[in-house]
What we know:
By secondary structure, this protein is of the alpha/beta class.
Amino acid sequence: MTRRIAILISGRGSNMVSLIEAAHAADFPAEIALVLSNRPDAGGLDRARQADIEALAIDHKAYSSRESFEQALDASLRERNIDFICLAGFMRVLTPWFVERWAGRMLNIHPSLLPLFRGTHTHQRALEEGVLVHGCTVHFVVPELDAGPIVAQAVVPVVPGDTEDTLAARVLMQEHALYPQALRLICEGRARLEGGKVVFTNAWSAEGSLRSPK
C-alpha cells in the first residue's frame, strides 16, 4: 500500500526535494501528498508547487499559542488523510500533544550522529570537539528533542581545514541520500517501531568501514 506522506518545512526544503525526487520512482512505496510550512514565505512551498504537490502554509504567528497552532496543523493533516510525516527543516519544537498524536508516524533528519550533538549548531560543535567523523541521522520523533529511535545513519569524514560550511555541505549530500532510503525502509515494512526501538526485518553485511584519517 502506498503511504500518503506530508513533508513539514520552514525554509528552502532541500531534503524535501530529495524525498519528492525519490517518490517519482515507480517502485517507491510512498506518495508525497502535501508540503506544509509554518512560514508563508518558505522557498520550499514554490518548489513543491512546481512539482504539482499541494503546498500549504499555516503561519504559526497567526495563533495565540503553540497548542492552537498545532491543532490547526493536525486538522489539516487529517483532512488530507496523511499517513506519515517527514520533518525536513521544520524549525518548530513540537509539543508532546502533537508528537503523541503522530507517535510512530513521524520521522526527522538531524545533522549529527545521534546521540551526539543534539539540538542546533551541530557542525560547529563537531569541529570544536575535534571528532574525526560526523554525519546525519534519521529517527522517529518523540517528545524529547532529537532522542527518538534511530532508523538510519550516514557518516562522513572531518578533514583538516574544514569549516562549518564545508562540513555542512558534506553532511547535506548524505542527508539527501539517507532520508529517502529510511522512508522506503519504513513504508516497505523492512524497519518498524517495536517496544521503543527500530526492528529490521532484513540482515545486512557488517563488512567495511569508514576510517578517518585514511
